[in-house]
Design brief:
The structure holds three protein chains of three kinds. Chain A is 54% helix and 0% strand. Chain A is mainly alpha-helical. In chain A, helix 1 runs antiparallel to helix 5. Chain A is elongated, with a radius of gyration of 30 Å. About 10% of the residues of chain A have low confidence. Helices cover 65% and strands 11% of the residues of chain B. In chain B, the strands form two sheets. In chain B, strands 2, 3, 4, 5, 6 and 7 form a six-stranded antiparallel β-sheet that branches. In chain B, strands 1-10-9-8 form a four-stranded antiparallel β-sheet, covered by helices on one side. Chain B is globular, with a radius of gyration of 27 Å. The termini of chain B are far apart. In chain B, 57% of the residues are buried. The C terminus of chain B is likely disordered. In chain C, the strands form two sheets. Chain C has a five-stranded mixed β-sheet with strand order 5-4-3-6-7, with helices on one face. Chain C has a two-stranded antiparallel ribbon with strand order 1-2. Chain C is elongated and about 85 Å long. In chain C, strand 4, helix 3 and strand 5 form a beta-alpha-beta unit. The chains are: A mainly alpha, B alpha+beta, C alpha/beta. At the A-B interface, helix 1, helix 5, helix 6 and helix 7 of A face helix 11, helix 14, helix 15, helix 16 and helix 17 of B.
Chain lengths: 199, 667, 190
């Protein structure tokens, strides 16, 4: 796997993953609550969907909890209403719009995708792509290792000992080779020949 | 008398911090032994005054001196003594005094440990620390005076917030949180010193890293303790709601973790110096932002203290600190030039960069989501919410990606690796990944993200365990040591590395446990009369009785439920509803039966003792205990990496002498 | 292996500013501070009602103590004051006297109380003790409170003759406030 594509794979994976999760609530004017658009639910499906839709509604009297999670009376009343509406066949967007009409956008826990709200979704994506580009650029502009060793030696004070050099003392040299084996994974502590062409 | 003593001590603290800060910066510009000695004295003095002021406040609390405004605010004669002691940090002004205390201790310890080391950096560092200390002393002396007096002291007080009296965890969470939060001041000072001196040498990255690791450990514990508290006390069955104040504690943790990793690259290759400094500074500034978020009343949160005048003051400090940091970075970033080169290709360097990117992305996302309602209100005047669904949706892919990088990174070698080497390194852990994936699938996990997390978890687990075992295997092979001896030797020599991998093991366990517990699991809401039973999964619950208990500060209604699993009796659980005098809504205490595989969680919605009926929320949450265990593992790993590092520093200094060569490793 | 001590080369005193870092830093810092500053006086708990200017949600509820349900539609043509309250709510005691007095003074308007999260027996006892001048309605399951977007008590809605909500008042009312808002409701006859 070559350098930049590793970063790009990660970038694209996350971007598509975030998008691939079931789409957030659609944009558009709130649907009037006259006719149910979905099918009536019952039983375990009804319970499950009540939890799901409830988790998208904010309990107005609590601090940030969803209607599904909050134990307060108001939340339980709202949850019962959600359940009723689901059993009657209203779909998720209609139910959320119904509460939004009474409480405002505040009651929606996941921001609707329109206008300024798009920033909250696009912002992280922009940081991901921009950051990914920076990482790719940083990795690309590194010079091949052979050159950098010579450059370091020319600079006078190498930050770390170069990969080939061994101390004169034989016991010390053995210790250094063992360290390189452990740290870099080189068998016998001998660095592999760099595959690039010589400068 | 008492309030006067307290106010005087705070003023003296303010003076000591201000003077010490000025002397510190002056000594930094023009080094002198006398200047450094005085800087140290002022630092110790500041610490002493903060400690004494805190003791005075505790004395006032314990003697129920209601002439002190803070005591009148949170004190009460009818609460247990331990509640009185911990009410020091339960409310606004007291918690700032507590902040001052923790800061004083940190500054004193950090100054003492480095009193003879890094002479060009330390005066600047202490100067920065004391400047921060001066700000908080100013808060205590002015906008948030805990020792203000009341002309007509009441006979009794309302006691601290009822929620905080409900559980002993209140004792532990704030001290850990403050030790983490306030502790970020120390690496901030060191990073600023590096900028002001214009250099980040190899010798200086070590104290920077150590003093970043210490608060990191505290902050990790504190964040999870907060989650545990929410789980055990609030009764909604979850442990993290992405509440603004929860996010406030999480943000600096993210940047600090990123900084700890990029510091490794600084130490090994001398690259990413400016970036690491930026991350460390960001960690501190995020703690100040967090303090602002908690105390300003601007954010809608479970946690926020009431609105007060100190909001604008903290914002002003935050603004000044931000601008100072940007200016210092812009002016000095070029002096922190890298001394080495990043490796190209698939190498550990690349993994470090991707990891840093993911952490920064996470930080940005959480910060944006938390602040966004304010942005929208400013732009189009609408009041909207950004809640759990948003944060969960974005943090799941990031968490899973981090899990993946945590496995790939250590598997790749440090230097340039050939394709064959990469394949050899990355293929075997796939087996571990597949194994955990299949196991999870068989046990019922179906959510694709959970399955992915399990796969990466198995992958990373294999890599991490292999890395932990590597030095042991090497020693056994090359020296012929027995297993036990090899373990003992390698854990005493390679502690930093071992500690780091223990932390990774804990982190991967936490991520997998969170993934499993939040997507699998069942729940039920039911109304029961005396004697009635219900089942959930393998559990059968019988509502036996409800009772009333009266304590001086609260009345509790307790329900007894007998639990059996698969037919065999397990015992009884006692969820309760507590009614405090000061609150209208009662506060429930859930009853949780934890085991390694799952938690049985009972929370009361309504209870009537006279008619004998109870409305219950019953949850079965798998793998929650593993989250707490994983955090303990992470903290232990951090301590493991930290403790000998401090000892090693002094050992290193001692061995430097007239002889130029240290003794080689003994055989 | 001892690391060679870092050479103490004095840093070149470059007052030159790194533009990229400066711009990047300011781009992050300035908007953040601006947003926080702009929101300083904000009370996150006061949410504006989206119902103002819109038709009032209909309801038909039985009064406390029994009797035939009173519906909002039947009161079309007169201004209506709907006050959500509860016996456990301290500010509701405070405004009770003002509301009763206003109901007696402004006979052209219909005052209604809707009881929020409370039980009937307690409400009846409260009204018997304190006196009332207008019916209070029981809101089973809190549906009406939800429909009106109630966050807590006391909250009062002023509805004009056409059934449109002219304003919402959060907190205990005073006589002056009632008079002013009722004026708005009366004036909005269109």
């Amino acid at each position: 796997m070559s350098r930049p594509s590793a970063a790009w794979v990660a970038v694209l994976a996350i971007a598509s993953a975030a998008a691939a999760q079931d789409r957030p609530t659609r944009s558009g004017p709130p649907a009037a609550l006259d006719a149910p658009r979905g099918t009536p639910l019952s039983g375990a499906t009804l319970d499950a969907r009540t939890e799901e839709v409830g988790s998208l509604l904010r309990c107005p009297v609590c601090q940030g909890l969803s209607v599904a999670d909050s134990p307060s009376t108001m939340a339980r009343n709202m949850k019962a209403e959600v359940r009723e509406k689901l059993a009657a066949g209203y779909d998720q967007e209609q139910i959320i719009a119904h509460f939004e009409r009474s409480y405002g956008e505040f009651v929606r826990l996941e921001p609707r995708m329109r206008g300024v709200n798009l920033l909250v979704w696009l912002g992280p994506l922009a940081v991901l792509l921009g950051g990914g580009a920076i990482v790719a650029w940083l990795l690309k502009r590194s010079r091949p290792p052979a050159e950098s060793d010579q450059a370091a030696e020319r600079a006078g004070a190498p930050f770390l000992p170069s990969r080939d050099a061994l101390p004169d003392d034989a016991r010390l040299a053995a210790a250094v080779r063992r360290v390189r084996e452990l740290a870099y994974g080189w068998p016998g502590g001998i660095p592999p020949k760099p595959p690039a062409t010589s400068p | 008398m008492v309030p006067l003593a307290g106010r005087l001590l705070i003023l003296l603290g303010l003076l000591a911090a201000s003077a010490g800060s000025i002397v510190g910066f002056a000594t930094g510009r023009r080094p002198s032994a006398a200047g450094w000695a005085w800087t140290r004295r002022f630092a110790y003095a500041f610490a002493a005054f903060m400690v004494l002021a805190t003791l005075v406040m505790e004395y006032a609390l314990l003697t129920h001196d209601f002439s002190v405004s803070y005591v009148a605010h949170v004190g009460s004669r009818s609460v247990p003594t331990w509640v009185t002691v911990v009410s020091l940090w339960s409310s606004l002004e007291g918690s700032i005094l507590f902040w001052g205390l923790v800061m004083g201790i940190y500054v004193a310890v950090a100054t003492y440990r480095n009193r003879e080391a890094h002479p060009e950096y330390m005066p600047y560092a202490v100067g920065v620390w004391l400047a921060c200390g001066a700000f908080f002393s100013f808060l205590l002396a002015g906008p948030a005076q805990p020792f203000a007096t009341i002309p007509n002291p009441p006979v009794d007080g309302p006691g601290p917030n009822a929620l905080l009296q409900n559980h002993y965890l209140m004792v532990m969470h704030p001290p850990f949180l403050y030790s983490g939060y306030v502790g970020m001041t120390i690496p901030f000072g060191l990073a600023c010193a590096a900028l002001l001196v214009g250099r980040l040498g190899h010798d200086f990255i070590r104290p920077l890293r150590n003093f970043l690791l210490l608060p990191w450990i505290f902050l990790t514990i504190a964040i999870v303790l907060g989650g545990w508290w929410a789980y055990e006390v609030l009764g909604w069955g979850g442990y993290w709601a992405w509440d603004p104040v929860e996010n406030a504690s999480f943000l600096p943790w993210l940047t600090a973790t990123a900084a700890l990793h990029s510091a490794i690259l600084v130490e090994r290759k001398g690259v990413l110096k400016a970036w690491t400094v930026t991350l460390v500074i960001a960690s501190y500034l995020l703690t100040i932002l967090g303090t602002f978020m908690t105390r300003s009343g601007v954010f809608n949160s479970v946690h926020s203290f009431t609105q007060s005048a100190i909001g604008p003051t903290i914002l002003a400090f935050l603004g000044v600190a931000l601008l100072f940091s940007v200016a210092a970075l812009a002016l000095r970033v070029d002096t922190l030039a890298p001394e080495g080169r990043l490796e190209t290709g698939a190498s550990r360097d690349a993994a470090f960069l991707v990891q840093n990117l993911l952490f920064v992305l996470f930080t940005f996302t959480v910060l944006l989501g938390t602040v966004f309602p304010l942005v929208v209100e400013a732009v189009r005047g609408a009041q909207m919410s950004v809640g759990r669904p948003y944060f969960d949706r974005l943090s799941v892919p990031i968490g899973v990606a981090l899990l993946f990088v945590m496995g790939v990174g250590p598997a790749l070698p440090w230097g340039r690796a050939t394709g064959a080497q990469v394949r050899k390194a990355l293929l075997p852990p796939l087996i571990g990944g597949a194994a955990l994936l299949i196991l999870g699938f068989l046990l019922g996990a179906r959510n694709p993200w959970t399955l992915l997390a399990l796969f990466f978890g198995g992958f990373t687990a294999q890599v991490t365990l292999a890395e932990i075992a590597l030095p042991v295997r090497q020693r056994m092979r090359s020296r012929g040591e027995g297993l036990l001896e090899a373990i003992a030797q390698s854990q005493s020599r390679g502690r930093r590395r071992l500690g780091a991998y223990i932390v990774h093991a804990g982190a991967l366990l936490a991520i997998v446990a969170i993934a499993v517990s939040s997507t699998t699991g069942t729940s039920k809401e039911i109304q029961l009369r005396r004697g009635e039973s219900t089942t959930l999964g393998a559990y059968a619950l019988t509502f036996v009785d409800a009772d009333r208990f009266t304590e001086p500060h609260r009345e509790s209604l307790v329900a007894r439920l007998d639990v059996s699993k698969n037919g065999s009796r397990l015992g009884s659980l006692y969820p309760r509803m507590n009614q405090y005098e000061s609150q209208r809504e009662p506060i429930g205490t859930p009853a949780v039966r934890s085991s390694l595989t799952e938690d049985l969680y009972l929370s009361i919605h309504n209870i009537d003792v006279d008619s004998g009926s109870v409305g219950l929320l019953v949850l079965v949450n798998p793998m929650v205990s593993w989250i707490w265990i994983a955090t303990a593992v992470m903290a232990l790993g951090g301590l493991f990496a930290l403790v000998p590092a401090f000892r090693a520093e002094t050992a290193l200094v001692r061995e430097t002498g007239p002889t130029s060569m240290p003794a080689p490793e003994p055989q | 292996m001892m690391p060679t001590p870092a050479s103490s080369a004095s840093p070149t005193r470059a007052p030159r500013v790194n533009r990229k870092v400066l711009v990047a830093g300011l781009v992050v810092v300035v908007p953040l501070i601006a947003i926080l500053l702009l929101n300083l006086g904000r009370d996150p708990h006061s949410i504006r009602s989206p119902l103002i200017g819109r038709p009032a949600p209909p309801f038909s509820l039985a009064p406390v103590g029994g009797g035939s349900p009173i519906s909002l539609e039947s009161l079309r043509g007169r201004p209506v004051v709907v006050n959500f309250w509860a016996t456990w709510c301290v500010p509701c005691f405070e405004e009770h006297a003002a509301l009763v007095a206003a109901a007696r003074t402004f006979k052209e308007a219909q005052f209604l109380g809707i009881v929020y999260e409370d039980d009937e027996a307690r409400t009846k006892a409260f009204l018997a003790e304190r006196g009332g001048a207008y019916p209070s309605l029981m809101d089973a399951e809190g549906k009406t409170a939800i429909a009106y977007g109630v966050f807590g008590v006391p909250e009062t809605f002023f509805i004009d003759g056409q059934g449109r909500i002219v304003d919402k008042f959060v907190g205990p009312l005073s006589r002056g406030a009632i008079a002013e808002l009722l004026g708005k409701a009366k004036g909005g006859a269109r």
